[in-house]
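Recap from last week: sequence in, structure out.
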Amino acid sequence: MSWRATSLAIGLGLLACNHSSALTDGGTDGGLAAGTIVDAGRYTLTVLGPASPDLSCNPHATAADAGLQFTDVTSQWGIGADGGFPAQGTGIDAVDLDGDGYPDVIMFNEFNVFSKGPGQSGQPQLSEGREPIPKVVNGSLQNLSDGGLAFAVTVLMNRPNPNGPGRIFVDATESSGLFQIRDGTAGFFRSASIATIGDVNNDGTPDVFTAPWFPPLDAGNEDTAEIMLNDGTGHFSFSPPSDPALMAWDWYPQGITMTDFDNDGQLDIYEAFWHNWNSTFFGANQQLYRGNGDGTFASVTQMLGLDLFNYDGAFGTLPPAALDAWLADANSRPVIGVTACDLNGDGYPELLADTYGQAWNTLYQNNGSGTGFTEVGRDAGFAGDNDRDYHDNQYFICYCLNNHSSTPDCKDAGPLVSNFPSCKGIDNWQPDVSEAAAELNGNNFTSTCRDMFGSGKNDVYTSRINHWWAGQSIDRSTLQVNESGPYDGGAINLVIVPNATDGLVVPHTQAELDQGWNEGLLGSAAVDMDNDGRPDLLVSAAGYPYQRTLLFLQQGQQGASQTFAEQAVPLGLTFRCADGFAVADFDRDGDLDVLFGASLTCSDTGYTTPFVQLYTSNASRFTHWLEIRLKGDGTTTNSMGIGAQVTLTVNGASQMQELQSTYGHQAIGNDIGVLFWGLGNCASVDSIRVRWPNRALSVDTWSNVPADHFIELRQADPTLYAINLP
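Predicted structure tokens:
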């Protein structure tokens, strides 16, 4: 038996006993007495009675003013070099896989040594990119021929600590069956690099779709994308094979999510791709798959209007048709991340794609009821900002200095800055291409949807890579406020807030300024990290020296603007060069924790493996909170409620959250299926309104909800259910 299998067997044994506790509040609107035990399994589900209104509280009281601190607890949770299991990962998803109420973890390591595809020559190749299952040999865990150890995929179950209080992560990669191989090949895990999560067959448990980075048709990889069905205990089996386009391709998946685009109660899959290593800057066409409700899917990409011009030729001169499509914003393009959320209030999700190489982003507006999509990126303000002035781009200046000074456009060229290397030999500015609007946008990685300021509309923050030498025409990481109106299915209008106005300025050290700065902002999350009822922005950064985690805490109204202040290091979030992360209340104590995965792309860190670090928060010591799990009926609404919009009102202050699956760079998954709310010093919630993602857009409302609970809200059921965890 491997270490992986042994560890899980020990962890599962801890769940044999049940813990129950009855609440004794007053009656409920549902007719059941408060404290009634509805279900007793791995946790107890009890009826929760109403709370008294709290009319004098401050829903925006912040833990940051009372001693908020994040602490590295990696070893205490049984992972890391000093903690037992040496977990590795760059793409991280948090979700309760086994139904015990605690978020588990799925991880992918983009720096694994097992894949050998285009652009990675010289790395060892083992069985077409498959990770050999680690075994204990001479007292140490090994899976490399030299006696070493490396991971490509990992499943960690969140378990009670067998040696004392608290919880630990237990490796369950092998025993879960999530990465088994369809043909039964033993001794290896299936090749995979990205996942999205949702209940695709509406049996009440989250299923997982995985895809390999190096695809079968290009890299000779034997493994394809797979839908893995969960039996409710965190054990997985294969769904029936479905649309071949979903199972095998010659593209490189980078962004993927589950959403119900037509509100038929069955989750669908939206996927986008990087370019083929042997092709131009054109990417592969985005794909949309309609779910059949049984774990199978069918492509509806062309039928619903997502089909763009696709060119898969070699690098070099583009044929006229391809160049025309690129200039007209009609081409497929390399995508880093995708997001699905409702931006115009009609109850149907839009599809957002973050593109690389300063190409336009795409935004597909949902026409409603599954009838199709219209690309509105430029009209809505999402494709890129309107700053097209490239005259301070250092490569343009070099073009002018290198025997092109007589070109009329060069008369407006800015100065060559002192720390730019010599222009000698630099000749990569192409006037017809580099100056085109289609090439003057951003290097986009993650777009995060969240109602940032209580408008009831999803705003969008996009994290991007940026460079000092690119000048003002390259798009910065920015927040766009949703000013769409009327908010009932009309045109989408996203308005950029200048960083100098809202405080979302990336700090730079003097050394960076002296050497030339880079901003490698990859992942982002709009989450309430200080429990003050206002979402903050957590951002990971990598790819260059001097990159560290950023935490922009929302400060509230300052003059005419809502502002933020960067506070990561003072609050203890000191992790440098993070490729990915997942945010979740891993210990379910009422505040948000963060699991980071290291990148090997920062030359100043000395990292040799993509290790992980877990930081837990103490915010709940100073504030109140509420965590919500939704339960759709599984017929008109998907069982997890993905796509539902939940609005909390606390002493008159309202804010909306939309329940999402994965999103952004490497498909970030933040406690999928659970929404977290900080409540300041308020001990109760005035009301909770849920608009369900179904054709009727049905609405349920609960009133006078007690704070400091993990609750379940069921479609068309007025009862409040408390999830009481051991």
